[in-house]
Write a structure and sequence with these properties.
Strand content: 15-25%
CATH superfamily of the largest domain: 2-enoyl-CoA Hydratase, Chain A, domain 1
CATH class of the largest domain: Alpha Beta
Order of helices and strands: EEHEEHHEEHEEHHEHEEEHEHHHHHH
Radius of gyration: 22 Å
CATH architecture of the largest domain: Alpha-Beta Complex
Distance between the termini: 75 Å
């Protein structure tokens, strides 16, 4: 057999890469009993924009691509952990301020941006290492899409999941319409993508979107399950599963009181992440990579079939509904960030075109 080369080739895209808006770090790998393994690591990739709920800007998308390529190529990396800074959000998708102020009304610019976005999703799906999405808070919109591109999801149970597309002028075709039917089935995917109603981490776990779920709220020094949702498996009078559904009435009031008394502590989340990384460490690396490649195929088949025509449609949509939706979200008052859907539908039914007058008439009224 050949001896080890005296000098290993560098297969990274560029030397000394900078990851704008993204933190990249290598943490020592640990065995299942917690012992540090010298010379082996887990790569942690952090979206670092907590003041805007870790929404990704154009530069951050570039950073994610470069970071994943570096982690994939790193010979001493066991697994990749993809997460966000803070405890409020993993990621809420594209940066709506940038969308509204730069891309709205500029389809060719957005088409180029979507090339970067598509490359980000593809880079996650092509990573030679197992990828764990550490859901430290909301996973919404495009955040849901890049989260589902990962191989595993470990979540804290206060997190919320969901799509934003048709509510804010887009369609969730950056991965959700490809991945959700594969992961949770066609009917549930239809409801999630079209109705855009957020759902709890417990519902996500029940639907099969999540590998593991842990508590994050500590009251009097002890972890308790999310007090705002039903966390026991039960049915209502119609036989519908209530697990993970929002509480109501007095039960909700009691839950809010508990939330007010507690503090968010992500130590249990990190412990579960380390546990999963340790399990992955104790496998044949090439056999694990091949297993990942095969198991990713249903997602990849749908993604590769649709990503280019989705990119073209999303670019053109920046002239019509996306322009109005993103501007409404960016500039509308905090309690009213949606356009007037009834006025829009009536105008379209009467044959109106997408004029500036129509755009302005459906915007939320500022106080």
């Amino acid at each position: 057999m050949n001896s080890t080369p005296k000098q290993l080739n560098n297969h990274d895209l560029c030397d000394g890469a900078v990851y704008p808006g993204v933190r990249y770090e290598k943490r020592p790998a640990r065995t299942p009993d917690g012992k540090v393994v010298d010379g082996l690591y887990n790569a942690w990739i952090w979206l670092d924009n907590p003041t805007q709920f870790n929404s990704y800007t154009t530069d951050m998308v570039k950073g994610v691509i470069l970071a994943f390529r570096a982690a994939s190529n790193a010979r001493d990396v066991n697994a990749v952990v993809f997460t966000g800074v803070g405890d409020k959000a993993f990621c809420t998708g594209g940066n709506t301020k940038e969308y509204a102020e730069y891309y709205a009304g500029h389809p060719q610019e957005y088409r180029q941006y979507m090339r970067l976005f598509n490359d980000m999703v593809s880079t996650i799906l092509a990573c030679d290492k197992p990828v764990i999405c550490r859901v430290n808070g909301m996973r919404i919109g495009g955040g849901q899409e890049i989260g589902m591109a990962c191989d595993f999801t470990v979540t804290q149970d206060l997190a919320r999941y969901g799509q934003a597309g048709p509510k804010h002028g887009s369609a969730p075709i950056g991965g959700s319409t490809d991945f959700l039917p594969v992961i949770i089935g066609a009917e549930r995917a239809m409801a999630a993508c079209v109705l855009c109603e957020p759902f709890s981490a417990h519902e996500a776990y029940y639907m099969g979107m999540v590998t593991a779920i842990v508590p994050a709220l500590k009251v009097d020094g002890k972890y308790i399950a999310n007090p705002l949702v039903e966390t026991t498996l039960a049915t209502d009078e119609f036989g519908r599963i209530t697990f993970g559904k929002p509480k109501t009435g007095e039960s909700l009031a009691q839950g809010k009181a508990l939330m007010a008394k507690g503090t968010v502590d992500l130590a249990a989340l990190d412990e579960k992440i380390e546990e999963l990384c340790a399990k992955l460490l104790m496998t044949f690396p090439d056999c694990t990579t091949k297993s990942l490649e095969e198991l990713r195929k249903p997602k990849l088949d749908a993604w590769n079939r649709n990503k280019e025509n989705s990119r073209a449609w999303l670019a053109l949509n920046m002239m019509t509904e996306a322009r109005s939706g993103f501007i409404a979200f960016n500039e509308g008052p905090k309690n009213d960030r949606e356009i007037d859907f009834i006025a829009l539908r009536k105008a379209i039914a009467a044959g109106a075109g997408w004029t500036e007058e129509l755009h302005l008439s459906i915007q939320p009224k500022k106080a």
